[in-house]
Specification:
Length: 233
């Protein structure tokens, strides 16, 4: 009897442990079974009202996307010419040109330059014709009134003695001047030498001549011969 009681006592904890382990496993299986069956049997049907907003949402987003991106994209007109050409080259999808020799490339450049020169010349002629037409249509400006009356000053005339006639059509005249000093009232004599123009080589050395002021005729000539007053003896 004592041995049987000992066996029962030794077997009892093990059996209890096995039952404790099996009980949670069965509970988990029972809980999973209804969960798997519920979506198949009791799954709610999707209403068409719920589907409609989902389908319309991407369309609304697509409509709003260009509006948001529009301010950031620069129009072609605002881009500089170099950037527009670069974009045009990058978007070009045509066939590549055949390989050309240097002579062909040079001939093409020469033809292009000649064509541009012809167009440029025609454009310039057109602009000149327009400018001439504008000038012809514009009324003539009224002449400005002179500020001072055109009065010719009195040219000085001097009498002197020819000291040299060696140069062609030029004589050297010494002009003697005698005047009274303002303070001391003494006669002061002085002389000056000028070059005068003699077109016909009429005056000779020692002659008394009369000369008049003129426009600059050379680097040193500012006088011209009027007449010969007295010939040399």
């Amino acid at each position: 009897m004592a041995d049987e009681q000992d066996k029962e006592t030794t077997e009892t904890p093990e059996a209890e442990n096995e039952q404790a382990v099996e009980a949670p496993q069965e509970a988990a299986q029972e809980a999973a079974a209804p969960e798997a069956e519920v979506p198949a049997a009791e799954a709610p049907e999707e209403s068409p009202e719920a589907e409609t907003p989902a389908e319309e949402a991407p369309a609304a987003e697509d409509q709003e996307a260009p509006e948001a991106a529009a301010p950031t994209a620069e129009p072609e007109a605002q881009l500089p010419p170099k950037e527009r050409r670069r974009r045009a080259r990058s978007a070009h999808s045509g066939e590549a040109r055949p390989a050309r020799s240097p002579e062909e490339r040079h001939a093409e450049r020469v033809a292009t330059r000649r064509d541009k020169a012809v167009r440029r010349r025609a454009r310039r002629l057109q602009e000149r014709a327009k400018a001439a037409a504008r000038r012809a249509a514009k009324p003539a400006a009224e002449p400005l009134a002179p500020v001072h009356a055109p009065v010719e000053g009195t040219r000085r005339v001097r009498q002197g003695i020819v000291v040299s006639d060696k140069a062609e059509k030029t004589i050297t005249v010494r002009i003697d001047i005698a005047r009274r000093h303002r303070r001391y009232e003494k006669i002061v004599r002085s002389s000056s030498t000028v070059h005068a123009h003699d077109e016909n080589n009429d005056a000779n050395e020692g002659d008394v001549v009369r000369v008049i002021e003129s426009r600059p005729l050379s680097r040193t000539k500012r006088w011209a011969l009027v007449d010969v007053v007295e010939r040399a003896r």
